[in-house]
Amino acid sequence: MSPEFNLIAKYFTRATPSADLGVGDDAALLRVSKGYQLAISIDMLVAGTHFFHDAAPYDIGWKSLAVNISDMAAMGATPKWATLAIALPEINEPWLAEFSRGLFACADRFKVDLIGGDTTRGPLNISVQIMGEVPTGEALRRDGAKLDDDIWVSGKLGSAALGLAHLQRKITLESEVAEHCLQALHTPMPRTDLGLTLRKKANSCIDISDGLLADLGHILDASNLGATVALDNIACHDFLRARLDEAIIQQCILAGGDDYELAFTAPQSQRHAIEQLAHQLDLPLSLIGKTTEKLGIEVTYKQQLLDISKKGFDHFG
Amino acid sequence: MSPEFNLIAKYFTRATPSADLGVGDDAALLRVSKGYQLAISIDMLVAGTHFFHDAAPYDIGWKSLAVNISDMAAMGATPKWATLAIALPEINEPWLAEFSRGLFACADRFKVDLIGGDTTRGPLNISVQIMGEVPTGEALRRDGAKLDDDIWVSGKLGSAALGLAHLQRKITLESEVAEHCLQALHTPMPRTDLGLTLRKKANSCIDISDGLLADLGHILDASNLGATVALDNIACHDFLRARLDEAIIQQCILAGGDDYELAFTAPQSQRHAIEQLAHQLDLPLSLIGKTTEKLGIEVTYKQQLLDISKKGFDHFG
Predict the structure, then answer these.
(1) Rg, C-alpha atoms of chain A
(2) pTM of whole model > 0.95?
(3) Which residues make beta-bridge pairs with B38?
(4) From the CA of A199, how many Å to the nearest CA of chain B?
(5) Within 10 Å of residue A260's Cβ, how many Cβ atoms?
């Protein structure tokens, strides 16, 4: 097993100040802050399914951790520790060096310590578990939305999906727009600061990974509510805004996925406080609709009902 | 993503009394007992590398969790929670039903709650993260062995490796012996009770997954010591005992791996207490050697030095 241990030591071992014991023993050891719950989430990324086989390893490293940190943001948890299990078809050191560079760039940016892991031989597969802390009882959940809540989304939606469509040659983008969209696709920025500040404001929260309608749908299903959403109110890149009449653009925003923004609901009484948040965090927060008693999601555009039946939106399903 | 969610709901969702929030949200939530550290370990198992493609899914399910629980035993931690990420080439419901049956059989036996996970499409790959608790400061580690410590191993070694050799047709076993060895290979029993009781007795501990010499070697490397080990003193199945002169049998015991027993060192002053433990737990505990100042491991058999250079023992490396 020597090659395995050399890999861990060489590419994934670093000081882990937030843990009592990091990489190197049978398990890592840590202490959770008093009065806090531990939040845990695991995500597996497979070459061919979650990223292209020839994607830049730096980007794969960044995104593997970022998508997990996003789950912490969605719970209102502070991300703190992560473990990484990776299967590699061969020991490709330049690839590993870049992968770990991207992973640690994300870890450093979000102050997450990599405290354990496993490397093995096999088809490329990356499994990251993230752990964070949230004051007991304050975690944001999917099932807390209330009737007549405001529905909000952070940031600008659709760019990552548009970047994917560009790579798949479904659309041609100017180089500047392409660059923006591909950056959104390859190196998303999870909204941890927003998640933390929403703890006592929002009733429910989820991160947008599959797509706004799909993920908002999880909140609504768990809370037994429906929603109305105005496409016009969803912030998006100028390029998408200018072409909002087109089906492919509408699909990118509503169903594209890979945004890693937060969708959340909050009482109307919190509206002003949330608008203040947007300024404090210098982050667009769009009020896009409200929860309803009638189940299902109705999307309007220019005050007209938009057809979002599966037929039109299964490109990205 | 509906198929993914149906899988989680159908096969992997159960009540999780030990967690505050289990499967179903962006993350699971739990509270660590006051005065305890959280121990975390992750293992990835790949078809073709860790198990045969046509291995019984019940066994794969059991073993995926068991090998992780064994890491908890090696730390002296009480295993409590687990998450499972699994990539499947296709949705094969009979396979999944059996896999989850084996996984939960192990979980129930060791009182572990499955609190989260991810299922995705891809070549078969199973990533399990285990979490447990240990009183702060009492975890058993690899680097705590002292000079002149007694070296102990639990249970009987070599059976699982012999089972593997039988499957690979390197040896032919009578059906009763084969059955015992294959059970050891497919459904190992991690030594959690022993791990807990060793907390204030042992100086160091590791679980035997790669093989006795390899894993004992990790303790010695971390503690900057060597060891002498008497092959004769290692408990093993009668079948191996009768053929202890043969190289293949010696290799199974010393280097076969997959035993998931514990190897640990303790001060000589604990000798009697540990012998008492063996009776209390109804578990063989073999005193097999001692730590030395001179680095490296010397193995003796019938008081003669045994040649364990890599050449003779790389079958299982």
Answers:
(1) 20
(2) no
(3) A30, B133
(4) 15
(5) 24
